[in-house]
Amino acid sequence: MNKLTNYGYFDNAMKNALKNFWGEEFPVFNNKMDDIFDDKSWIVKKDHYELKYGNIPNNLDTLNVSVEDNSIKIEYSYKDDNSSQSFSAYRTLPKDCDFAKISANVEDNVLSINIPRI
After folding, report:
1. How many domains, the chain?
2. What is the pLDDT of residue 58?
């Protein structure tokens, strides 16, 4: 399944476009804009946020997680004898993040990014 909503820019742009078109009330979804973008990769906890990306290949060539201008950038690439794959995603982070303490880990083919809250 292709989930374009996992990429923060599309998510926010689409929400704003729908709100501008329909106003604050979006009749089809009962004014619950967030329900259309039910994003399982973004987890909100009391003291931190988590981002999770599954299906990370074994033996990555590169994996980069960086923060620039309140956005997190995730990139990885993989190559073997028969195929190659690359992935990148940008997410806008909430303002209450402790950007200096963000950590990332890959375990069981899942990339988990821990983003502490201030």
Report:
1. 2
2. 83
